[in-house]
Amino acid sequence: MIPRGLQRPLKTAFYRRLTLTKKKAPSRLTEALLEMADDMHRVGIMNESTYHKITVRHLGDKVLSTAEPISGEEIRTLREREHLSQAAFARYLNLTVGYVSQLERGTKEPKGPALALLNVIRRKGLKVIL
Q: Looking at the structure, do residues 54 and 76 belong to the same domain, yes or no?
């Protein structure tokens, strides 16, 4: 039996956990607002900074475009384009030299923050993260 003074906090904690773990489908209103924001951005009425203020909560299951896969050969080309050794490249990306070597050989694929950084370097160059 739970003491009377703890019943309410436990119910509140359980309710919070329950509501945080459930995924809700976006409402019709949210879908309509996102569609309108896309149209306004495409036409030029809404500027880039305002458009990007839409949060991940509103995006739902949409995949962000920053996670494009990158091959080992492309990683090597990026590194050589910047005239860096594997050790220097690894230091800039806060990775180990062994991991950079494995990425370039294709034995491992970049994931998470490493993939995001490599995509930024591919699009804008290394000087962006320095």
A: no
Q: How many domains does the chain have?
A: 2
Instruction: Give a yes or no: residue 98 inside a domain.
Output: yes
Query: Is pTM beyond 0.70 here?
Result: no
Query: What is the Cβ-side half-sphere exposure of residue 76, based on CA atoms within 13 angstroms?
Result: 9
Residue range of the domain that includes 104: 72-128
List, for residues 33-72, the tens digit of each pLDDT value: 888 888 888 888 888 877 777 765 566 655 556 578 999 9
CA distance 118 to 126: 9
CA atoms of 21 and 60, how far apart (whole Å)? 14
